[in-house]
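Quick one: structure for this chain?
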Amino acid sequence: MWEYSAPLIAPEVRDAEPSRAQKDPTIVFHEGRWHVFMTVKLPRRSAIEYCSFEKWEKAQFSKRTLLTVSDSDYFCAPQVFYFSPQKKWYLIYQAGMPHTNKMWVAYSTTSTISDPTSWTKAKPILDGGPADPRQVGGLDYWIICDDERAYLFLTSLNGKMWRLWTRLEDFPDGFDHCELALTAAIFEASHTYKLKGQNQYLTIIEANGRRYYKAYVADQLDGKWTPVADTFEHPFASASNIQPAADVKRWTDNVSHGELIRDGIDQTLTVDPANLRFVFQGMLESNKSGKGYGQFQWRIGMLRPVELGPR
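Got it. Here's what it folds into:
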């Protein structure tokens, strides 16, 4: 069972490019501060917004900065990590580009994560061209590395998760093979992590409808994914196993596009199973009525496991 916080990051009240929704958070803790990158749904485009703060209670009041990494009117669903072999930060995201029916698997880099103006302009890892090995363009691109390879995972809204890889020394180039990693009743936003102290990996994947998360494990990143929590009634996180924390008003029964807080910053994406926290986008199912997806007013909150027994 999880308990959820009040909304921690909601659309900022502003005249210029007001946001309708805050979505798709990716987070690292570095040099005493949380660094959050997220999708913002603006009046005419989807983009990536950044904020930083020392404590989550201050998140809503922290300065927001729209990244200028792309001229596209659609670049979003970010992932951030520190790639230690090159000693630089990577931001991975999807970008809609003209004259291609597959989105870019895009990236930007910086040596200074605290400076949102320092990110390089978007470049493609995969560009949708003739040499692109993806069978489908997919979305919600996700990088994780072991000692030898960098893996790229993506979902395609049709019950499939795909896997590509390259040698660690070739990253971000060399993704020239694509294979099916998992077929199940899954939808989007697959996020994969190394479990601290274990020779095992965890993938959490969002299901459609009233959004919730399933969980799968594997012994290696190119291995078979085995379900461990893959129904609405027995999920990783769904309306069936979440509740508001003390003094928090009920504001969500959807658990959508979220990220586990990591035990570190690097490309191994290690999480501590003894200290799980899940930052997600949420809203009430009843508030979706009569609206298209682009009108949903997502806000960002945090799930923590409910402590069992006396406190």
